[in-house]
Amino acid sequence: CSKNRLASRQSFWAELNVARLSHNNVVRVIAASACSPTSQDSLGTIIMEYVGNSTLHHIIYGTGSMITKRKDNELGCGYEPLSIKQSLSYSCDIVAGLVFLHSQLIVHLDLKPSNIFITEQNVCKIGDFGSSQKLENSTSSNTQFCQQCGTYTHR
Description:
Transferase(Phosphotransferase), domain 1; alpha+beta; Ser/Thr_kinase_AS; Prot_kinase_dom; 155 residues; protein kinase activity; globular; ATP binding; Oocyte maturation factor; 3 helices
């Protein structure tokens, strides 16, 4: 892992923000343990539901296994662009997941196409909660943390 030890620890505990939550559009934590063998330099283990290996990033940029390939299109691309119907379906899935997370006072802070997983049933699930924060209360006006988290290229 390229992160320093403190960042890795914070990321591990941030992932557990969603451990008790269950929603169709959020990757579910099945089990977690902060225990690790003394011979390993590990923070612990998180077991999450299997959602496949395709992300919205793969779909948008044509690199995933679920992409409809064709020889060429008018744009010079070798893949079929998303239909309006599919775009709306994905958007609704993502919004439903975010509405649920926000109702639980969880802020993702690193939402990007590569953190949206597409299941084999073609459902979007929000994952990678390593930068997430659990808000203490919904009236908090402290927004400083938003400037310090997430993927640098997506700020």
